[in-house]
Amino acid sequence: YIVKGSGRNTALVKMSADGKQTYVVCTQLKEIVEFTDSYIYYIDTSSVLHVVRNDGQDNRVIASGMTRENIIVGYDAIYYLRAEAITPSRNAYSLYKMDLSGHNSRKLIFNVNSFKDYDKDTLYLMRRENVRFEITTPISAKETVTDYKKYNVTRYFKFDKNTEEITT
After folding, report:
1. Angle at 132 between CA 127 and CA 133, to 5 degrees
2. What is the tens place of the pLDDT at every residue in 120-156?
3. Do 65 and 83 meet the contact criterion of CB atoms below 8 Å apart?
4. For a surface tag, which of 40, 90, 93, 155 has the fewest beta carbons within 10 Å of its beta carbon?
């Protein structure tokens, strides 16, 4: 495989060992995410994640608005973060899972800021949340004062890929 061109004209080309046969696997290549035995996962110049067979056939769009940090190609599935509009001016990311061929995408968890692959069975997730706490202060034996305060909290979670259970 060789990369030819630059910018929007960048292409991934597969070449025979003798150099006589070449064909284009994909165009508008920005970044290769993963090579597997059967598929190539790449991000194009419009930040769209694609999966294509390594013979150049069956090129499919998986998700838009992608960066390398938002994708993990595992041994049995692809995990990625996709932006979702909460309001016209605010987005949140959700964690999605799909099979390696780029089919059967489904949402797993809403409001994930980042994630890391730990091992073949575990992901670690980070989520920032605005949390409202009730703080009760005793004034006397029979009287208390209640105050409400908001805090920005960062929470870390362990996600089991097999059972899809999340724990703090």
Report:
1. 115
2. 899 999 998 888 888 888 888 888 888 898 988 999 9
3. yes
4. 90
Percent of the residues in the chain that have a pLDDT greater than 70, as a whole number? 100
Round to whole Å and give the CA distance between 4 and 119: 34
d(CA 55, CA 38): 8
Per the CB < 8 A criterion, the answer to whether 84 and 94 are in contact is: yes
Q: Tokens 């208390």 map to which residue?
A: 144
Order of strands, sheet of 49-53, starting from the edge strand that comes earlier in the sequence: 29-35, 39-44, 49-53, 60-63
pTM of the predicted model over 0.85:
no
User: For residues 129-141, b (16+ Cβ closer than 10 Å) or e, as one string?
Assistant: eeeeeeeeeeeee
